[in-house]
């Protein structure tokens, strides 16, 4: 694959990011990071053994995914990705144990030791939430409800959803300063954000020191990424167009998506920020601009690469995905299931993206853009 498939950081003013700790790493290693959560149900039978290694001064165990002369990419038992230098003889030792994901109790103890006595680890059915002591169940409930709403919404529309292989971890810091200290420790290079989903650690990191509604929207957006990649809605070994991954993240920012209101009118579930941006810059008076944005997003990810166009990329991606999910749910499910099952480690070329879209959705980009725009105007 010639390019990384992860969504890039949103501009600082947007307060959302899907972050990789090592953005400059060789493409092969970035692609391998997609494998978190993509371990077959019979992985222990398929894997002959594990490696034991040291990373950040700690001993870990995991399964080697890629072995090069100068770098070994290892999937840890907690679902995290590690880069190890095999040339350092004492750094890697092969063990005969079969690979198994870390049990929840073991991971909980590891998190307690990692974050110290000022934090508590609260468990839900699908999450381990690390938070400052005394914060109650607000954040655990938000993460859990976000995931349940995500799986329910997708399942209702026929999208293939499976159980994740690893407990999902979310870390809530007491304030922005504490969160950024963690970013520096993990070498996550972002600024002025309210939270991230880190693909290497497979964790959502946020803080409890800002405007509650903004932080909650951040959590829902980043938790949607985490849920999608841990439940197989997005594949970690295929090149998924960004308008799909980020359109899904945008969809779940709305508080109605994680409340009982999600069963009512589509307008209640709409992302108002995206609607306002579309209406102010891509209204019916500028129909050609909306069409061009749709066509480009279907074919490539370039609109996400520039500060001048990234806001438009997020807004139009939301409109495209929300229209499909609400008005063409069968095609929405076919499209999601198709992108999740594409051949592993193969770049999704522009011509193939356009062809597949037209075949699955049943519309050419022009007719599709008109329907999306009419739908958005009706909300």
Automatic annotation (TrEMBL):
InterPro entries: DUF1570. Residues 216-344 form the DUF1570 domain. This is DUF1570 domain-containing protein. It comes from Stieleria marina. The lineage of its organism: Bacteria, Pseudomonadati, Planctomycetota, Planctomycetia, Pirellulales.
């Amino acid at each position: 694959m010639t390019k990384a498939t992860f969504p890039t950081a949103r501009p600082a003013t947007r307060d959302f990011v899907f972050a990789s700790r090592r953005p400059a790493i060789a493409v092969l290693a970035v692609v391998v990071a997609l494998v978190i959560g993509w371990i077959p149900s019979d992985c222990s039978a398929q894997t002959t053994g594990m490696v034991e290694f040291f990373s950040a001064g700690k001993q870990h165990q995991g399964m080697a995914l890629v072995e090069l002369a100068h770098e070994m990419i290892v999937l840890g038992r907690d679902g995290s990705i590690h880069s190890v230098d095999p040339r350092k003889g004492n750094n890697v030792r092969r063990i005969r144990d079969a690979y198994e994901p870390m049990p929840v109790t073991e991971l909980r103890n590891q998190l307690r030791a990692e974050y110290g006595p000022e934090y508590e680890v609260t468990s839900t059915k699908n999450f381990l939430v690390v938070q400052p002591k005394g914060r109650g169940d607000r954040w655990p409930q938000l993460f859990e409800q976000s995931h349940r709403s995500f799986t329910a919404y997708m399942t209702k529309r026929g999208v293939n959803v499976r159980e994740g292989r690893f407990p999902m971890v979310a870390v809530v810091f007491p304030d922005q300063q504490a969160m950024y200290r963690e970013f520096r420790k993990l070498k996550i290079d972002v600024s002025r954000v309210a939270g991230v989903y880190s693909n290497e650690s497979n964790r959502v990191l946020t803080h409890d020191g800002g405007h509650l509604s903004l932080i909650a929207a951040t959590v829902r957006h980043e938790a949607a990424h985490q849920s999608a990649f841990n439940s197989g809605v997005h594949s970690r070994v295929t090149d998924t167009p960004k308008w799909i991954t980020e359109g899904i993240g945008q969809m779940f920012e709305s508080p109605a998506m994680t409340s009982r209101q999600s069963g009512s009118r589509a307008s209640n579930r709409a992302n108002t920020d995206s609607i306002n941006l579309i209406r102010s810059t891509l209204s019916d008076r500028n129909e050609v601009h909306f069409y061009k944005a749709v066509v480009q997003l279907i074919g490539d990810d370039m609109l996400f690469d520039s500060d001048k166009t990234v806001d438009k990329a997020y807004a139009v991606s939301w409109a495209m995905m929300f229209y499909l999910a609400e008005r063409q749910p069968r095609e929405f499910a076919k499209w999601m299931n198709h992108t999740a099952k594409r051949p592993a480690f193969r770049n999704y070329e522009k011509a193939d993206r356009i062809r597949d879209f037209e075949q699955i959705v049943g519309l050419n980009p022009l007719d599709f853009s008109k329907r999306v725009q009419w739908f958005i105007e009706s909300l």
